[in-house]
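Posting this for the archive.
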Amino acid sequence: MRSTVVEPVRAFLQAEASSGALLFAAALIALGWANGPGSDSYARLWETELTLWIDPLNLTESLRHWVNEALMTLFFFVVGLEIKRELVTGELSDRRAAALPVMAAFGGALLPVAIFLIVAGRTDGRAGWGIPMATDIAFAIGVLAVLRRRVPPGARVILLSIAIVDDIIAIAVIAVFYADAIEAAWLGVAGVGLAVIAAMRHIGVGRIYPYLLIGIGVWYATYSSGVHATIAGVALALLAPAHRYRGRDVLGVLENRLHPVSAYVVVPLFALANAGVDLRGTALADAATSRLTWAIGSGLLLGKMLGITLVTLLVVRLGVAVLPTGVTTRHVWGLSALAGIGFTVSLFIAELAYQNPELTDLAKIGVLAASLLSGTIGAAVLITGGGHRLRRRARRSANATSPG
């Protein structure tokens, strides 16, 4: 990776690793709260209605809805910024370097869908076919951070690149397949707003407030159009200048200021609002016999592992791409298993896919179980993946460069 992007990528990985720990803690708190003595208060809190009234706008939604529709827009905005950086100056800007993560990500998206549809059959759960496509960057990078001495740097770059391509695919799926009835007029207004922002950038407008005001308008128009409002965040991020603009690294400034908010506030809040599945009574027994739960679990665990690994080994064997230095076939298997941690975006799609709360809960149990198993298997494979050889190689390198 070029030196100009090493520091932003390193900062991104560090924030995602820390966010993974917070995400895990928030999920545990949500599960404990939803299944403990105060479970009624958990449901009441997130179903509490809040009204945003800014004349002429008057929006009333539940607190969970505000987290999923509004706060998650910031999450997707940050994802969009990282996508823009990778496409313009990062690994994905080099066609040959991008071949491996792009093809591997498509393999890790299509095979999970195929497995899901086969297992789900002709049930009502089929609507959630997009759930096992996603990879949770924060959780996956968090596991790698714990295992950093056993995993070569190139492995982290591969996983990050695959996860980013996964995000692009998931965003497209959400926009196209999980939209409500489209209101063309509102979608047109959102398009006009984006065009105005592009024009402002072209003529050199440097102040942030005009962009912020029009960006809020784009969000509202997207929300009203039937396309999920979070897509507005991605669209706005892709308009951010990747190179210096009026002497400033706008993309870098936005990432530095917003990524910590997304990683340490928005994503844990999302987990707290959505991971609280009631596991009491017959919930676990119902999930164990549910085709939907098994479809999601097998899609995330088997689909990701086999899809990413087989495509990676194929493109390497054909000479289309090469593995980074130090990355072995065992590392590929371990990284592919970690990619099955679908958590954030998988839970997000589950909320969009089903109107029936019972199906939503079964889907969430599948996501939680598969993510836990994927993380455990991935870590186990990587732990036995030759960490001692990496340490020996590092010691030999240090001895070779030391004086005397």
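Residues 1-5 have pLDDT under 50 and may be disordered. DSSP finds 16 helices and two strands in the chain.
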